[in-house]
């Protein structure tokens, strides 16, 4: 079984692009499993990851394509949550959605994708940028 950890933020398009990439990986649906991880940076209402639209839509897409998945949630730094989940699950691949940022934006706000790439000890795949 090929296990993929997918970092899902609040952006539905990025989440669906990641789910599409999982479906497009070599092998049939029965050969893949996915952990969708959503990290809450701020969650004053106490929502769960299953209530986040981007997570639900990615999960629905995987289910429609016959791929087994589970949903995890965390709080705090998203990059740490993604890497920690991948390590705990001994994932074969981490998949995250990229996005365009100006050099100043990267310096000021950091980049979850960049942090995952630098912090992971396993392959990281980045989907196309917006």
From TrEMBL:
<feature type="domain" description="UspA">
    <location>
        <begin position="3"/>
        <end position="127"/>
    </location>
</feature>
<dbReference type="InterPro" id="IPR006015">
    <property type="entry name" value="Universal_stress_UspA"/>
</dbReference>
<protein>
    <submittedName>
        <fullName>Universal stress protein</fullName>
    </submittedName>
</protein>
<comment type="similarity">
    <text>Belongs to the universal stress protein A family.</text>
</comment>
<dbReference type="InterPro" id="IPR014729">
    <property type="entry name" value="Rossmann-like_a/b/a_fold"/>
</dbReference>
<dbReference type="Pfam" id="PF00582">
    <property type="entry name" value="Usp"/>
</dbReference>
<dbReference type="InterPro" id="IPR006016">
    <property type="entry name" value="UspA"/>
</dbReference>
């Amino acid at each position: 079984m090929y296990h993929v950890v997918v970092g899902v933020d609040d952006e539905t398009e990025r989440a669906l692009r990641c789910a599409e990439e999982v479906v497009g990986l070599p092998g049939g649906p029965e050969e893949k499993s996915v952990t969708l991880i959503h990290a809450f940076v701020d969650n004053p209402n106490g929502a769960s990851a299953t209530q986040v639209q981007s997570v639900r839509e990615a999960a629905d897409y995987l289910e429609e394509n016959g791929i087994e998945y589970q949903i995890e949630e965390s709080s705090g730094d998203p990059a740490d949550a993604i890497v920690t989940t991948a390590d705990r699950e001994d994932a074969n691949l981490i998949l995250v959605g990229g996005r365009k940022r100006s050099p100043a934006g990267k310096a000021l706000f950091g980049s979850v994708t960049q942090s995952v790439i630098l912090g992971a000890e396993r392959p990281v795949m980045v989907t196309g940028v917006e």
